[in-house]
Design brief:
heterodimer; A: mainly alpha; elongated; B: two-stranded antiparallel sheet; two-stranded antiparallel sheet; 6 strands; Mitotic-spindle organizing protein 1 (chain A); cytoskeleton (chain A)
Amino acid sequence: MSSRETDRMSSAQQTLDILYEISQLLHTQLDKETLATCVSMIENGVNPEALAGVIQELRRENTRIPEQSNVNGQ
Amino acid sequence: MRPTGSVDPSVVEKQLLGHIQKARIKSQDSFADALHTAHLRYKTLASRETDLDAEILLTLSQPPDTTALHYAEEYIDLVRNPGKARTGLTWSDILSEEPFEGQHWEGAYGLPPGAIRGDDDSTSEDMDSLPSLSPWDDDPEDLEERLSAWDTSSDVDAHPPTPPTQDPMLGVTTDRVSRQIALYSHRDEVEGLQALHYWRSDWRENVRTDRAFDIGDPSTFGTCPWFAVYNKHIPEHDAVREILIGLQGRHNILITWLNGGDDQWKFVPDSQVPSLLHLTPLALQSMLLSFSRTATHVEHLRRFVSAMFKEASKSDNKPAQTLSFTVSRRNTRTFEAFAEATDKQIRAFDRWCADKEEEVCMARAGLGPPRVISLLDLEKSLREAFSEIFKVLLEMLQNVVRRATQSSDPGLGVWAFADLPKRMPPAAITALLLDSLLQKTQDYSSMGDPVTSDGLLKIFSDAAEPLWGMVQRWLKDGMPIRDVMTVGGTPGHAQLDEEFFIEDNELVLLDPDFWSDGFALKSSADDIGRAPSVPMFLQHAAPLILAAGKAIGLLHALGMPLLEQSPGAKWLRDWKSFGALLHSAQMERSVNGGLTSRMSSDDFSRLVYEELLGPCTFAKQTLSQVLVDECDLWTHLTAIEELYLMRRGDVMSNFLDVLFARMNTSQSWSDFHFLNTAFGDVVSHTTWLDPTLVRVSHRGSKDKTSSRTARAVEGLFIEYAVPFPLTYVWGPRAMQVYSTVFVFLLQIRRAKNVLERILMFYAMRGKLSWFVNVLLNFICTNVLHVQVLSLHDEMRKAMSLDDILRLHDEHLSKLETRCLLRSHTTQLHRAITSILDMALYFSDCFVAYAGSDATHDVSRQSITPPKAHRSRRLQRQKRNVIGFTQDRALSAVESSDSDTDTDDESVPNVFEADYSLAEPSISFAEENIVIRLDKMSRELDALVRFIRRGVEALAGGTRSGEAAAAFDVFAFALEDWDQ
């Protein structure tokens, strides 16, 4: 592994760290793993706004499932 | 290169900066700092990496909660003091902090610009000032530099936090001095302003207590024990202002509005009312009470008005169909107009108060002429300007509300009226309100209180306007016509307002009772307990309005609108509003150019009546003109008289001859077909009238017609089909009366007819003929002819359909009375019928005795001669004898005959065994005929005498009234009986 490669890696790690900090500050409720996934997806050309939309939609779905199970339980 | 390409790095940065700014605005400084720091660190990285993944974070970001804020604090602490334990805030830190630090202190407390320590050089967008304890300066470049140092190297400890460097002692002293100066100058201004705030609870007037009490110097009054009950005094002009504010219903320090307790919904003097120096507490209290009363009255009215307005705007959205008929929740238009007029008055009052207040302020500022401002002066000018109008209005309104809702709750607020269900019909509420207003106006005008009465009159005039408008619409369009085709209620057709005093009984136009009963005044309801629905000022004009509206409606229905008949002038074009009408009336009565409100309710009534009389009379006249010209009133009247009253002698005689001939045979004469054919045949030879209009029918049973009594023809009924509008004149009842008269005439002529055929027994025949002729003569000449002539005379003068109807009804009732068809002359009528029956019976006797060939019939033309008298029918009738009936009748007649002059009571017994009730039963033994004739003669004598006495009683009595003269003639004619 070349030193250049190592540099790049650590820089990426730092970037991810700061991004995670910002993410925490902005209260996005993303854990580090998810954030890393998101970043890599965006690196690969996914529209960040669309991705954000998808995440929000998934969260909404997630909250709805227990509600529905409650309703069905009754 | 970004594959998406849609995200600009600057956009992300801008958004992030926006977040930071938002955090600062929300005073989440640490959060903002943390964000800023993180951003800067990110930027340094991004400058190398050109990564823009913050976009997703921004999109996903949520408002920071407490955990996020905690995290932010920790984060910033971590960034600043990496590796060092976090130090808490200590008292020494706080005490060493500069009190006036930061931009927000700038300018406050009059601090000079230099007094504030802090970031004067920082720009507005760069609000990220760090806390004072921060070792770092706010310079972004500096920070960036440090951050990059922190990023790249691990020796952060090389930059330990250093306290701000400044000269401690010198700065503190200068700051303190300048601050104190600034504080005092500021306090002075505040104190100066507060000194004017007399409404503050800690306010003290500058009262001199160091001098002895002197009546001539108000400033020493504070030392007097009477005045010193309250420890707070305010100047009188301020008190006046407070009162003015209170009168407008606003919060003030002198009088307060109570929402509960014993004095619910009242203004009362405040419990902590400040005193006035020169007034004793009692004096002040009484003055405040007086103002409180006025304020209470106005406030009540104000609430009523706003409740009405609210309700009115609400009910606009409601469709009319949902309104209930029995209990109406909707407020009447008159009430709404009244609320509006009251509102106008209240606004005038508010304006007056505001003007007064302005005067006070101006005078205080030294503008305008000098003024004396006092509570007493205010009260006096208030009374001069408004007198007792609000009190009167409120009392009247309370009374009306209590009656309309039938509520017994004395504490009921008038504003609740808008929501309460009304227990009176809308028209009655309207009438009640208008009457009460007018009554109060007159009361106060007669008391010599022109201010109140003028104000009330204005309100009255405004409140009456909707009703006046309804009158106009009624007169303009006439009654709403309900067509036969649309009966069952199409919602589109015009309806009368429930509030209007004329009610629609929902009859169809072609109903004969439509004219008389289709529309009526609501007050004509017979139960007395109900409130009148016609307001007083319309009382006289109401029948006029009703009649005119009906006339116009009928004209519309006939397709002759009124405007076509008055060329040039459109119908009701110059209709005046009620206010204008009142004004013009006041102008007429004005004395020395000043308007007067001194008008009695009769004046109002007359005013309205005079205004309406012209158009109403015109409308009615037009209608009667149309009836005469277009509907051939006279033609039909004459035809009916000729038919029913047999004034067309020749044709009717022909018809009767045919009818009698038929009766003399044993054939049924009551057959519908025969009657109408006979009539048609007779009439077709003349040009008299259209026989298709007439229908003759018999409504009795078959048995009755076959019996040979005068009653047989009683079932005969003649109908004359008059064209449409005239059906109101000749309705079913009129036709019934005409038919009765016709039947009576027919009975007499029948008797006369049969008597004429007898050529033997001259004595008996002569007696009967005499009576029948006298009777016929009286009826034809003295009753029918006289009445018809007088009817024609009066009818020619009639101005309206109502007049015609009235005249005709009177005419009919006169005819009935004179023909003895009324209920109180039943006995006389039955006696006459008995005599007529006797004539028929006599005829039968004669036929039985001499045979039908012996009869002399001048009018028999083409009718087959009657069959032999010993027919089967007659034999059957012979067997059908109830012997004792006749015997008893005869004995009764004999007994009455013996004491005719003394015992009147016995006479009615005769009629129990009436001839008309008995079947003719004749035994034809020759030796009996003489005895029978003798008996008949005696009975006839008794009956004629009875009739004579009865008629004389009628002629002299008061019961028959104006008919006495006619009966006099009859009685005079009957006197000849004895001779």
